[in-house]
Task: structure prediction
Amino acid sequence: MSSLTIARHALEPLTPDEIVAAVTVIREQAKLASSYRFVSVTLREPAKEIVLAGKPTAREAFLILLDNATGRGYEAIVDVAQRQPVSMLPLREGVQPPIMLDEFVECEEAVKRSPEFLAALKLRGVEDVNLVMVDPWSAGVYGTELPDEKHRRISRALCWLRTEPMDNGYARPIDGLTVVVDLNTMEVLRIEDHGVIPLPPTAGNWAREYIPETRPDLKPLEVQQPHGASFEIDGHEIRWQKWRFRISFTPREGLVLHTVSYRDGGRERPILYRASVVEMVVPYGDPRVQYFRKNAFDLGEYGIGMLANSLVLGCDCLGLIRYFDAHMTDSRGNLVTIKNAVCLHEEDHGVLWKHTDWRTNQTEVRRSRRLVVSFVATVANYEYGFYWHFYQDGSIQLEVKLTGIMNTTSLHPGETPGYGTEVAPQLNAPNHQHFFCARLDMNVDGQRNTVEEVNTIGHPTGPDNPHGNAFTAKVTPLTRESVAARTTNAATSRFWRIVNPQQKNKLGRPVGYRLVPGENAIPFADGEAAVLKRAGFLNKHLWVTPYHPDERFPAGDYPNQNPGGDGLPKWTAADRAIDDTDVVVWYTFGHTHIPRPEDWPVMPASSIGFFLKPDGFFNANPALDLPPSPPKPECCH
Ligand code: NI
Result:
């Protein structure tokens, strides 16, 4: 094996050599049997104080393991430089590590070997099992589990049928069938057959070869950067304009931002210590017996980093692009590199500011350019694109694009769907929601921050407001966890502001960043529904906690087959103080998807997210120093 590469910065992701070393050390020194799977191997991020002080630190790997023989999960820590295991501890009884990509493949194979499954296919006139697609849906916990499911690692697989190898199978749901699989033994425990529903009659293909004619009138639109890109890269540190930050990539979260700062005059001003999407939940609204369990936790039960696309196979960014690879392992501990997992590029973004003085005819306009760091994950049928945008006025935006193929079920001829939309003949796309939770470890000009809520209030007509036009912004500091669990409110144009009470701007007020909500939704599942016990954080859009290194995932570390009670609702029950301290802001945003025929067979991207905008962080518009764009020749007549 090659010698260990010593990474330069404490937050540099594990190198391929370090990943291989971590696997080898734990396998050899803990004498792991071949029944052990490697769920994930990531950098164990050093303590925040050590990173911020720039102190040297050990390079440690954090491993999640699963022993298929006993069904037990483990967490291990390995010192990769010293080649020493530090610890290996079993997971709490009853929770499961996330479902691994290898298990997707093995589960499908196991189902297709089952004679009972083949018999159920036969009932439905399906001849060629090779054209069947088996998606390993997570099982959740609903209190309906049969005795043989208890203490097992379960998937409740759902199936679709292709008509030929490249056909879109989601056009033909093999409805009424759920296959209960033990993922440790890859044994089919049971086929639940709720009755035959005929396959929908029409194909739903999007691939080029299925589209006979494409529109002929598009002329080329090229982005040229003849002098190169304006960013600089050192390892995983990125500098662009006045921004400076680091990135990493984990199998669970995908892209992570670290130590985001902005250069203001001669000062490097911190804004965020760490930011990532830490959970996604997709609850479906179909109550039928074969579908009420469809509530995917795409991070905690699977892992959107593990499911990231290699953009070698298709990247849609224009201009000069710099890619970053993501290194992880397969379930057997073999190194896996997702080539070009992360895309970095600049985009023109229209007008940033403009004014024409109508008296003098003087016009000044500045175009906005943004830096985009992105990746795309394919979670079976759906695609999620995650785009962090950095702007020249100090704003940061997280944009999530939802595309890919909707999940589907079949309809009898003439049947009207009860809980969805018929998107093609006899094809139902059920109503569902997509929730995303971003964990924002704020560091606005230092670690001691306070979160405020700002509600705009219209004043009643009265002696001080004789014409009834007055409205003001009411600021309320959120001082304890119990008062900081909040929802958005269109009626008060509600937003939140993260301020540093110690640092004042030129106007004498605390510097801050505003969290600007975008589209949002509340869960439509009943408060007593299992999904809301397991993902209690969905009941609020904002949570604020004092920083704790172990509080990383809002539904807890292991949501797979977890009956619930972990994560934000549990931690915040302690009602800790959150003013003028190191705070973490958790923002959940949801999209309600009532499907349209136009979302079929592949969905035009829907976009959702939020902004972090400076609010008194600067003394004036920080983008006054942008140079004007050179004038362009006229084009059209
Ligand atoms: Ni959707």
Observations:
- The radius of gyration is 26 Å.
- The longest strand covers residues 335-357.
- Residues 402, 406, 432, 434, 593 surround nickel (II) ion (CB under 6 Å).
- The chain has a mean pLDDT of 96.
